[in-house]
C-alpha cells in the first residue's frame, strides 16, 4: 500500500480546510493510500512533521495551507533530502504558487488532481541559505504582507493586500539599491522589488506574465522612486498586467541576483520570502533548476 503524509495549517485562509479532512482520508484510502496526518499548531513546528522521516517512508507529501506553509514544508523536505512529489492544497489567502500549478480551490477537486499523479519538476529559489518557491521581495510588498491583521486577511482574502497596498502609498520611502546580476549592476532608488519564480505574488496575478516555474530563470521587477500620482497609475497597470514597459519599472531576467543597499547609513530593510519575514539586506539570490517535484493541474 502507498503512503501519503498530509500536513495542514488549521489557521490558514478561511479556516475551512479541517472540515474536509474526512473527505481527504476517504479519497486517498479509496485510492489505496495509507494516510498520516500532522496538524501544525505554531510557527516553525512543521519541522516536527518531517523530523526523522525517510523518503522510503512515503510516496508523497501533501500540504494544505498558504504560501508560507508551503515554504516551510519545502525547506524541510530539502533539508532532509526528501525527494518526494509534493501536493499543494490552496488553503491560504493568496495561494500564489498553487495558482501557478492551476490547483483547484475546491478542495475535493484538488484531492482528485493530486490523485491523478501528474508530476512536474519545478525551480526553487535560494536567498541567503533559505529556499523559496514563489517570491523574494523587499520594500512596499514586504511591509504590506507583514502589516495585515490575520483576521482582516482571512476575512477579505486577496482584497486585503490591495487595500493595504493602497493605504501604504502615501508612506512610501525609497530604498537606494545596488542590483547585481550575472550581466550588469544597476543603482536605483526603488519603492519595492520582487524576484519572482512564478507569475504572481500577494494575490497580484499578473506581476510577471512571462514567468514560468520551470524555465530556470527569475523575473526581477522593481518600482523606481517616482511621484505619487505616477505610482497610483502604475498600481492600476500592475493589476492589469500592463506594467513591464512602464518608465518607472525595472524588469530583468536572470538566475542570480545580489541586492544590497547602496547607502550604508540607511536603515536596512528585511525581505519577504513567500509571504513570511525573510533575511535583511544584503541578499544573494540564486535559482536551483528543477529542484523539487510537485503535483500539477497544468
UniProtKB/TrEMBL annotation:
GO terms for biological process: phospholipid biosynthetic process. It comes from the Bacteria. One of its GO terms (cellular component) is plasma membrane. GO terms for molecular function: ATP binding; ATP-dependent diacylglycerol kinase activity; metal ion binding. InterPro entries: ATP-NAD_kinase_N, Diacylglycerol/lipid_kinase, Diacylglycerol_kinase_cat_dom, Lipid_Phosphate_FormReg, NAD/diacylglycerol_kinase_sf, YegS/DAGK_C. Keywords: ATP-binding, Kinase, Lipid biosynthesis, Lipid metabolism, Magnesium, Metal-binding, Nucleotide-binding, Phospholipid biosynthesis, Phospholipid metabolism, Transferase. Residues 1-131 form the DAGKc domain. PROSITE patterns: DAGK. Its cofactor is Mg(2+). Coiled coil: none annotated. Belongs to the diacylglycerol/lipid kinase family. NCBIfam families: PRK13059.1, YegS/Rv2252/BmrU family lipid kinase. PANTHER family: LIPID KINASE YEGS (PTHR12358:SF106), SPHINGOSINE KINASE (PTHR12358). This is YegS/Rv2252/BmrU family lipid kinase. It comes from Orenia marismortui.
